[in-house]
């Protein structure tokens, strides 16, 4: 079964995150249609599924010198520790050039109590809509998210990376995100 996890439900037109303008049922159908083409993510139990770009908008903004930034410190959902976020006020989402939906197995999400389906083989939850401004679509996880996962912070999912793998992945993340932020959205 494929389910849209509440983490992905925060990705709306008015949020600072990437979003899909179609229905949630259509989103789930796209995953089902492309599921067999998915590739393993950063660890077993994480699946990256590429889908067509139509109807997706990227919240990623490339910074220009002099851009003003805003930010906050809040939990992603009740019960989690707050996290920092940074955004570019007045920026607008652009149509995506590539889209990868990130799915976690319900069994993996159960490690942190974040599963919404029963923790059994075959249950997958869409946790993120990664609509990219890059045609390659291989934008790395943001450094803050990667570190929260690696260091076992509230709401994170253990990466199971060695220290060397973590450092390499963090360097790739930093290289991509050093001149990018999310658009501010209208929230």
Query: CATH homologous superfamily name?
Result: Protein of unknown function (DUF3228), domain 1
Structural class, from secondary structure content?
Answer: alpha+beta
Give unreliable regions as ranges.
none
Main beta sheet: 5 strands, mixed
Query: What is the approximate shape?
Result: globular
CATH architecture annotation:
2-Layer Sandwich
- As a whole number of angstroms, the C-alpha radius of gyration is 16 Å
Distance between the termini: 32 Å
Q: What is the CATH domain class? A: Alpha Beta
Strand residue content: 25-35%
- The total of beta strands comes to 12
> How many individual domains?
1
Give the averaged pLDDT, no decimals: 91
Would you list the SSEs in sequence order as H and E? EHEHEEEEEEEEHEHHE
Please count the helical segments: 5
Give a description of the structure.
With 187 residues, this protein is of the alpha+beta class. The protein has five helices and twelve strands. The chain has a single domain (2-183), classed as Protein of unknown function (DUF3228), domain 1 (YaeB-like fold, 2-Layer Sandwich), CATH 3.30.2310. It has helices spanning 6-9, 24-34, 106-110, 143-150, 163-177, and strands at residues 2-4, 19-20, 39-40, 46-51, 56-58, 60-62, 70-74, 83-88, 94-95, 98-105, 124-132, 180-183. The strands form three sheets. Strands 1-11-10-4-3 form a five-stranded mixed sheet. Helix 4 (143-150) packs antiparallel against helix 5 (163-177). The model has no long low-confidence stretch (mean pLDDT 91).
What layout of secondary structure does this protein have?
Blueprint: E1 2-4, H1 6-9, E2 19-20, H2 24-34, E3 39-40, E4 46-51, E5 56-58, E6 60-62, E7 70-74, E8 83-88, E9 94-95, E10 98-105, H3 106-110, E11 124-132, H4 143-150, H5 163-177, E12 180-183
Parallel strand pairs: 1-11, 8-12
Antiparallel strand pairs: 2-5, 3-4, 4-10, 5-9, 6-12, 7-8, 10-11
């Amino acid at each position: 079964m494929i389910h849209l996890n509440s983490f992905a439900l925060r990705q709306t037109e008015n949020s600072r995150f990437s979003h899909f303008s179609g229905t949630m049922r259509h989103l789930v159908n796209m995953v089902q249609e492309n599921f067999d083409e998915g590739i393993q993510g950063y660890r077993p139990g994480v699946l990256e599924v590429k889908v067509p770009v139509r109807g997706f908008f990227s919240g990623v903004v490339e910074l220009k010198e002099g851009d003003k930034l805003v930010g906050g410190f809040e939990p992603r959902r009740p019960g989690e520790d707050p996290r920092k976020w940074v955004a570019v006020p007045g920026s607008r989402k652009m149509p995506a050039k590539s889209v990868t939906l990130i799915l976690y197995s319900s069994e993996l999400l159960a490690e942190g109590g974040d599963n919404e389906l029963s923790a059994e083989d075959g249950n997958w939850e869409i946790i993120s809509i990664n609509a990219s401004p890059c045609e390659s679509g291989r934008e790395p996880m943001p450094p803050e998210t990667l570190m929260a996962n690696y260091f076992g912070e509230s709401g994170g999912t253990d990466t199971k990376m060695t220290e060397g793998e973590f450092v390499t992945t963090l360097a790739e993340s930093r290289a991509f995100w050093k001149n990018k932020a999310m658009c501010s959205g209208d929230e």
